[in-house]
Amino acid sequence: MTTTLVEAEALTKRFGTFEAVQGIDVEVRKGEAFGFLGPNGAGKSSTMRMISCVSPRSGGVLRVLGMDPDTDGPRIRARLGVVPQQDNLDDELTVRQNLEVYGRYFGLSRAAVREKAVELMGFAQLTDRADAEVEPLSGGMKRRLTIARSLVNDPELLLLDEPTTGLDPQARHLLWDRLFRLKQSGVTLIITTHYMDEAEQLCDRLVVMDGGRIAAEGSPGELIRQHATREVLELRFPPGEQSAAEVRDLAERVEVLPDRVLLYTADGEAALAAAHARGVRPVSSLVRRSSLEDVFLRLTGRTLVD
Ligand SMILES: Nc1ncnc2c1ncn2[C@@H]1O[C@H](COP(=O)(O)OP(=O)(O)OP(=O)(O)O)[C@@H](O)[C@H]1O
Question: Ligand 1, from 46, 207, 305, 306: best to mutate by most atoms within 8 Å of Cβ?
Fold first, then answer.
């Protein structure tokens, strides 16, 4: 039996007359990792803040863990873990103290809190930093500690707003591994991101958001199959010489970006050979698999990270 943990219908958030979230429908099921993918300003954080019961909705229906955030906020929050966009750790406390103090907020006993902190430091791979202050830790370590802290109350649903923004590739991969383990242990994840690789790595299902609306919904694989071809041929030309005219008929669809021309085709190498045969001479070329970035470009006409 699938259980719905978050159900939104025509969910709307207005700031004055500006509608940041414009009537979206979303359903998050128990055990899945669900993503909101979109550029800055798409309305992802506003949606997350409504789900985390810290920002009231302006319209529509919202149920979280079967309850209404308007009337059951505290009861819902007690069963949620929230990882905000910016780490808000106490820099002057140690790693262990950060976890213990937070645990006490949730009413855990001293003994329970001590035990939980040890378990969570192991999970976050911070055991050897237990008694170090937070301030000098790397960005990746701070993020892992913020996530560990959000797990103090054994939440059923963990909300992560841009979990890996600003981290280097190694730190991101370590974090993805931790999140994957959490999912395996049965925690439902909701993640906002503007990184398409993060959405592809972590999310079972996602919505692509743009301008407060949902542009598409599905698994990463489904979205790519529906909105892109199997392969993409990327051609780079000298500045000012970029033109799609000579290659337009070599692909199902052609996109001209400021620095590249993208040819959407089932067979990128064949398209490249055909382009060469007619005398097209790019500075460089690359054949790659289609990604969610291509899906976003198709749906919105823009690249995800402008
Ligand atoms: N408190 C607020 N008052 C007025 N406008 C706001 C407020 N919060 C957000 N907005 C506006 O709502 C829109 C959506 O913002 P939101 O933070 O939800 O987007 P986002 O997709 O999460 O992007 P980001 O990654 O930048 O957080 C933006 O245009 C933003 O400027």
Answer: 46
Q: Which two tokens stand for residue 117?
A: 């902190």
H helix or E strand, kind and range, residue 128: none
Residue nearest to atom 10 of ligand 1 (CA): 20
Full residue range of the structural domain in which residue 237 is found: 229-289
Residue 161, beta-bridge partner list: 192
Is 299 inside any structural domain? Answer: no
Predicted confidence pLDDT, tens digits, the chain (306 residues): 569 999 999 999 999 999 999 999 999 999 999 999 988 889 999 999 999 999 999 999 999 999 999 999 999 999 999 999 888 899 999 999 999 999 998 888 999 999 999 999 999 999 999 999 999 999 999 999 999 999 999 999 999 999 998 888 888 999 899 899 999 999 999 999 988 889 999 999 999 999 999 999 999 999 999 998 999 999 998 877 767 778 889 999 999 888 889 999 999 999 999 999 988 989 999 999 999 989 998 998 877 655
46 Cα nearest atom in ligand 1 = 18
Instruction: For ligand 1, atom 25, name the residue with the nearest CA.
Output: 40
Residue 138's CATH number? 3.40.50.300
The residue whose CA has the least distance to atom 6 of ligand 1 is: 15
The ligand 1 atom nearest the CA atom of 42: 21
State whether 119 and 267 are in the same domain: no
Distance CA 293, CA 299 (A): 10
* CA 294/CA 305 separation, integer angstroms: 12
